[in-house]
Amino acid sequence: MPFSSKPTEPIRQLLAGIRAFRARYYDRRPENMRQLVTEGQHPEVLLIGCSDSRVDPALLTMAEPGELFVVRNVANLVPPYQPDGSYHGTSAAIEYAVKSLKVSEIIVLGHAQCGGIQGLIRLRTGQKAEDDFVSPWVSIAASALDPYVGPEGSEQEKFDAERLQHTPAIIERAAVRASVENLMTFPFVREGVEAGTLHIHGWWFDLENGEMWAIHPETRMFQPVE
Amino acid sequence: MPFSSKPTEPIRQLLAGIRAFRARYYDRRPENMRQLVTEGQHPEVLLIGCSDSRVDPALLTMAEPGELFVVRNVANLVPPYQPDGSYHGTSAAIEYAVKSLKVSEIIVLGHAQCGGIQGLIRLRTGQKAEDDFVSPWVSIAASALDPYVGPEGSEQEKFDAERLQHTPAIIERAAVRASVENLMTFPFVREGVEAGTLHIHGWWFDLENGEMWAIHPETRMFQPVE
Amino acid sequence: MPFSSKPTEPIRQLLAGIRAFRARYYDRRPENMRQLVTEGQHPEVLLIGCSDSRVDPALLTMAEPGELFVVRNVANLVPPYQPDGSYHGTSAAIEYAVKSLKVSEIIVLGHAQCGGIQGLIRLRTGQKAEDDFVSPWVSIAASALDPYVGPEGSEQEKFDAERLQHTPAIIERAAVRASVENLMTFPFVREGVEAGTLHIHGWWFDLENGEMWAIHPETRMFQPVE
Amino acid sequence: MPFSSKPTEPIRQLLAGIRAFRARYYDRRPENMRQLVTEGQHPEVLLIGCSDSRVDPALLTMAEPGELFVVRNVANLVPPYQPDGSYHGTSAAIEYAVKSLKVSEIIVLGHAQCGGIQGLIRLRTGQKAEDDFVSPWVSIAASALDPYVGPEGSEQEKFDAERLQHTPAIIERAAVRASVENLMTFPFVREGVEAGTLHIHGWWFDLENGEMWAIHPETRMFQPVE
User: Fold this and answer.
1) Architecture of domain C42-224
2) ipTM above 0.90, yes or no
3) Exposed end of chain C (fewer CB within 10 Å): N or C?
4) Which residues cross the membrane (chains A, B, C, D) (predicted)?
């Protein structure tokens, strides 16, 4: 039987948090939740973020319930469009957000110190990984490293492996670009973008300094948002 | 070029939220973020929740950055263990949380009014869906409906389809159970549970009343958490 | 020159908090402040609380800007009605709240571990105080101790002094009662109460347990609020 | 009997807020309150603010319980040092903060659209007021208007009355200066300032734009804080 019989301390604290949420959002100021229950959700934004506990989209943007439709996976990756009938959780969420909820904004939110991207760097520079899912998953962005890593087995590859371990931001951002490009392979995304009803944003959060960077629409380079 | 040149209103507001986050977490009370940057993340909890904008795990539990490692997908589903080398985003996050971060708790958090589960009910009762990803994805929990739906094409099936549209909570909870069972097919999850170092929780949030329900460890029935 | 030339750490942090406030209330969600600026304040509640840093009315009640008109002084005292032309800060605030803002509720909010009431107990039991203002100020509630303290200079008084140091809650609540009674000496307060347009509440916050107590309208005894 | 028998809507909401506070500060994250209960309060800052519901010191500075010792009265005024044994609430709080709590900072926080200052302007320009307490109280700062208002009964006085109704900020700030000067008449304040252990700050909050202004330590002029 997988269930523990007595709440552990972390669970006890989360349940206290839920009591506070109920007192705050259902009793103290019920308007917002009441409307969300009656009328359903109408978020304008789909945010694709990382599972990392330090980069919570709602906290980071001071969102309220109802504002952000959120996908979170390891390394905030978007796979390419592959309608093959198998389980594609991220693609399902993108489809639901764009076709059912008709969001007007999609944000891919990367960040510094990403463990998934560290795994990708190791993987792409020839270091073995012993896992079932993380490596295949992060390999979605493997080609993003092409400009930064020498040929397989070369001296340059070893050198780059070393270098990138210490400057992962370049890869974290390249992976955001790759996800943005994969987004555009979804026909319903491309249509919305071309019709001007859907806007795509590539962001990267500098965890050390608390600064957000975004892909500039013209230069297409990452720049700090003022 | 997929990028819009001027921030739309929702984006402008999110950027204002980020300024508030920075002022709050980096300037006003920097201790927490500073530690999370220096020492990395050490969350105790993996939470698998829905992308629905109304059920944000951090808001709902009053979490702070660093506390929850979060996966969010449509209908908070866990697929079965399938280490076949293809893209399994949710499984990758579970693997990373359990093996690398060594979380002690896994919460599967379902909720009322779940659009993904509505899709599953339609799908499972013979109504055609025109989508590429949502239907295959939610079919992860299809067998959870078996006790509640008559044989394919039967009169009972039609009746059940109608009925379940109006009482989806029973299916939303059955889907949480299915995900909890799928979790146990992951060898590293099962090991942790059997060793007593990992605890699994099935929760369902009553959006109308703000009450959390949980699978009781002994009766295994959903009950409101006091 | 009384001004320091470089912000100290506490000031630096408050200024960071103000930046967060501006980003949150002026940029992220400007509606509330915009309305309060355009239409002026219309609070329904006057709260008379203690200056104690642990019992902040806005935090304690999760208030937003515009909701509470607040007086804070040592021991949350209301002096009797004395329209003698001298400086009566608390009385001025009561007058402004009732006559100009037309609040419908007045709350006198006392609390456990009140330093001002400790001073009052010492004062009332014959212990000398070396201060210019605190003792005269808290003596507003001196008569509230009459039922609990023996005659001046008596053995009983010594005994009571000792006892009350360890059970100050009884005096903290008696002082709230005294302030409520003083409130009723203000003609414009009495009129509102008698007309049914103004309601008075006597509260006491149990700092140790986080529980609020209130004077019950019928029994007039302090009871925990459900 | 002054107590209403059934909670009105504003009271019901405040009680819900208190439930949220308890869940948040006593159950979810109890460390801070537990320490404040065990060790008592040790605020570093005394803030003297206005009762105005729109300028709540804790919200404005994102303070937590325990950080700010707060006096709030009409127009955030400090009377001059008058140790005459009568009721001086603000002076008592200053004395308690400086002598018992040994705060290192005193902030006088004024703000735009101050109703108390409007009353002072009317009073000082010959308009009758029908009140018992507000006019005597705000007259604490009456001399602050001397540079801005012509002689009593003069044409210039009428002109200035009209002008100042539309530019009250100049008087709001002059009143902050007056309070800062009155603070320095308290011997224990002056001692602390001269010893360098106590710092005084004169602030004014621009309610329209969300900007804080402060008296510059050298020029002594009000300037926006970066």
Assistant:
1) 3-Layer(aba) Sandwich (3.40)
2) yes
3) C
4) none
